[in-house]
Amino acid sequence: MGKNLREPLLKLLIEQKEGYISGEEISQRLICSRTAIWKHINELRSEGYQIEAKPKAGYRLVYRPDRVAPEELIPHLSTTSIGRAVRYQRSVPSTQSLAHEWAKEGAQEGSLYLTEEQTAGRGRMGRIWHSPTHSGIWMSLILRPPIPLNQSPQLTLLTSVAITRALRKQTNLPIQIKWPNDLLIHGKKVCGILTELRGEQDQVHYVVQGIGINVNATESVWPEELRPIATSLAIEGGRTFSRPELIGAICGELETLYDGYLSYGFTPIRILWEEYAGMLGQEVTARTGQGSVKGIAKGLAETGALLLETHTGVQTIFSSDIEW
Amino acid sequence: MGKNLREPLLKLLIEQKEGYISGEEISQRLICSRTAIWKHINELRSEGYQIEAKPKAGYRLVYRPDRVAPEELIPHLSTTSIGRAVRYQRSVPSTQSLAHEWAKEGAQEGSLYLTEEQTAGRGRMGRIWHSPTHSGIWMSLILRPPIPLNQSPQLTLLTSVAITRALRKQTNLPIQIKWPNDLLIHGKKVCGILTELRGEQDQVHYVVQGIGINVNATESVWPEELRPIATSLAIEGGRTFSRPELIGAICGELETLYDGYLSYGFTPIRILWEEYAGMLGQEVTARTGQGSVKGIAKGLAETGALLLETHTGVQTIFSSDIEW
What we know:
- Chains A, B: One of its GO terms (cellular component) is cytoplasm.
- 2 copies of one chain form a homodimer.
- The first copy, chain A, is an alpha+beta fold.
- Chain A is built from 9 helices and 14 strands.
- In chain A, about 30% of the residues lie in helices and about 30% in strands.
- In chain A, strand 8 (about 190-200) and strand 9 (about 205-215) form a beta hairpin.
- In chain A, helix 6 (about 155-170) packs across helix 8 (about 245-265) and helix 6 packs across helix 9 (about 265-275).
- The longest helix of chain A has 22 residues, at about 245-265.
- The mean pLDDT of chain A is about 95.
């Protein structure tokens, strides 16, 4: 039966409500071996399902993680374009790659690719992005802004502001923005944004924005080296959060800010961004391809580049890692 | 037999050397109708083949247009990367679209997609690019430069310089560069370059550069409205040019300049560009998305943007149509 066992098994467990169902009964009803059941029970556990196994009584479903499937997301959506077209798969290599394909097929503005886990999620510059199952929001958003290529960095900043506003409202946590594409809580990374695009100098053809948010992750899901620098909303807030609800809130903020951006330009976004950017006024080090630059982070240029006041004057930083 | 008749028919005609071959003999040897032969003869004529038809004697091949197929190009190539991987199809909708697919499959740097005609060739901002059969060079070049997104306009300028140098040497014609992406002779367009890319703020993932050059075109191949503004090397030079030879020369200049660019940056390219740009020092009008700007064209910014000296100061033009 292989993969086809998962959904009927889950259905049987859910139907029992608070009761147990024996391995023998499952085996008879699904026409499969006890070993196959055991294998799938363990797979569900690894996805965050808590399933009790009691000798003689059988299996009982104790906790079901939330899902970001369209039917769970729609009740939380109040938008007209962002998130209105959705594709969902439980597990994918990377939502970015799939969304690029979708965009090329003509996906409408605001289309959203959602998943529970990525097996090959990626961040800036080909870095690995850890996307453990059910523990975060891993999604890719398709936009078609009528802007020239040199304004495209503005979109990362716009999305940073939208997510910050949504998460602050939903969690009351002190989210801050780190240029160019991270959100932090108490200096640890809770969210990353990867803006990829296809275009020509005169116009962006489409943008695919990867958004990764550590929502209900516990430290144990990350490799050792990430633990000192990563955090999640659950770790910081001391409780779990509903991912579909958060996605709904993010889509709402995104739509408001994006509509405003298309009508009034980048200036309103820049003002909000500067309010949420923890690094402004501080001395930072920007590591660029050409070496390191030290200076006081002053704010944003109109294109979205970072302005650093160094001892030789104001420098415009387009691409770099920032430390402070 | 349909499309399969074309190649054997051409082979028969070529084999006759200076002699005629009767319709009846063709019909017997290719097992096809006289009508089918006539249809394919006319198709070959529309591609630039001159085929004489003499009553009683039959058909004779008088002139064969050159082709840009790999076997004709290779003798003219002296490069190690640019043009070393080639894909060729006699007719395609657009080499750009096919090269994007190829780049995604992992095409190596310098890969070149070549064709005799495009049925849906495109220029900047989705404009139509006329690519009549055998009359020009229609090709797309794949590059993978390790540069951030904001430096990508430099690549259009680099390629403009490379093509200008190659064509000046091969034709002795006074080719000039018009920012951002055209080459002109006596004010008329002879070449356009379309730089499309996929990338993120920190790095370009790949570039697909469409290069269209009117080589042996006569005015009659263009629609009425293009005739006052378009020209070809043949019209200006009073003779036809070998397209494979020109492509070989262009690949050579491209490789030299691109290698230099990767080692020494944009400055040497900028100096050459300014030498070939007909518009420098002149008053020009830049029509941007936000309106028109009038000023004296002063040169290039380090990113490849155009610097215009207006009465309110120097303005940096990133995307616009230029008139002067």
